[in-house]
Amino acid sequence: MAGIIPTEIGLLTDLERWGMERGNLTGTIPTEIASLSKLTFLDFDFNQLTGSLTTQLLSLNLLEQLDLNDNNFSGSINGIGVFPSMKFLQVRQVSSVSMETSH
Amino acid sequence: MGLIFHIPGIDISMDGEARFKQQRDEEQFSSLICYRQSFIICLFTTKQLDFAFEPNIFLNSIRFIYHTMLINLPFAKLTLILAAVVASVPACAAVGSSGSNDEERQVFPRLRTIQTRQQISSSAAEKTGAPQQISSSVPEKTEAPQQDTVEILMEQMLLMSMDTTIDPTTDLPSAPPSDSPTESPTGSPTELVTMGPTTAATALATGAPSVVASEPIITTLAPTQGDATVIDTEIPSVTPSLRPTDAPTGTPPTLTPTVEGCGISADVRRQQILALLDSVADPDLIRDDSTTLGQATTWLLENDPRKICPGVPKILQRWVLAVLYFSTGGDEWFQCSANLLADDPCGFEEPFASPQKQRFLSGFNECEWAGITCDEELCVTEIEFGMSLWELSVDRFQRIFDCSWSFTDCSFLPETYMPPFMLTTHRAE
Known about the structure:
By secondary structure, chain A is mainly beta. Chain A is built from no helices and eight strands. In chain A, the strands form three sheets. In chain A, strands 2-4-5-7 form a four-stranded parallel β-sheet, with no helix packed on it. In chain A, strands 1-3 form a two-stranded parallel ribbon. Chain A has a two-stranded parallel ribbon with strand order 6-8. The radius of gyration of chain A is 12 Å and the shape is globular. The relative contact order of chain A is 0.20. In chain B, α7 (292-303) packs across α8. A four-stranded mixed β-sheet of chain B has the order 1-4-5-6. Chain B has a two-stranded antiparallel ribbon with strand order 2-3. Chain B has a two-stranded antiparallel ribbon with strand order 7-8.
């Protein structure tokens, strides 16, 4: 599994769980992910994703589990603690990413 | 960036066939995390209690690492690998954590001869909700299969990862597989049917037609002996008219084939589907076969066995999944690829066996494709197809082996050792 995450995934508005872990995905997480308002589970760990963790993630109010560890993200993501439904968050070994929680 | 190397359990079946057992449940995964310094440090980790209770998986995974080292070390210039077992076993502290040393020495008879320059301090962190105690332990009792079998398996893995002379086309089917089972006839045909005309009569138009029917009409449709001949001497009694009587008044019949079930021509279907896709994607890209969008569109229009009609509500989601397939190198997927050269038994191995799933881009509803789950209304609610353990193992093993061999292509490993478990867990109140 190598390539990019297509932006067209945003058309699957009923998507609740999305896991494409342990691959060679490159590029960024598309901003269209904000359309996936029913998403509760997101797992992209152990890929080669880059860029900043898009703030569109914060619009996923139902997100309960976010697993992005072992990628090449950069920048910071502020307010990640605002996920109202978050039960599990793992971003270990994400280089150059600082996190600020607001809880 | 870290490297994690999931080692699947090795299931020695009753008939002695060794095969790798994929463990979809991440709670049972084991991991090998390697770091590069002047040597290579690898940490073998387990995550969950359940895993520790699988002694076969546990010890065979250790053996895998160990044999990998032994095979690699003689050829490596400067390779030093340290294996550390980090078991996170919440309630397993009493499961013989100290009594396993002797057994470990048996499993690693040469491990103590490997020089290490750095002690690995380890901790563990889990994905589970409740905090867990951390202890280093291995199961007390093991019933691992015979080491010879494991060694053979390891050698096979090495050969698999090393042999670059294998022609990928060898032993592959020369023709695409058929969805419908075919069976060759076993018996001989009982009837012989000639190729001669049987029903089309020869009409002879003469200026003065007359009825001549003195000869008998012999028609043999199913001769039983020898070659059959069809003699039809019937002569029409009505003179055929050579001139049309009425000019056609309606719309001339179109030669464009219609799409079965859609009630529209193929061209109209194509236009309507493209119009739909134009509304959600770049019109130029979906018409460009060099792009993944174009490939998905071409597949939907021309190659999808399901021949979706434009009015089908889920046509867009089917196209999106096709886009996902082409965007992520679907033809190279190790499991359930649409690639006709793929020979994996899709739907018969986990995680796509229960429920049994179908190949991507097959003629089944997209909800039946591997890794896809839908709700009652057949809307896609789940996409889950991480790299399989087997695929990951072969890929990463190859890279580690190459690195160990030449030590020149180790860029995928971190240069310096870092505590592998820098876990940040946020828990909602």
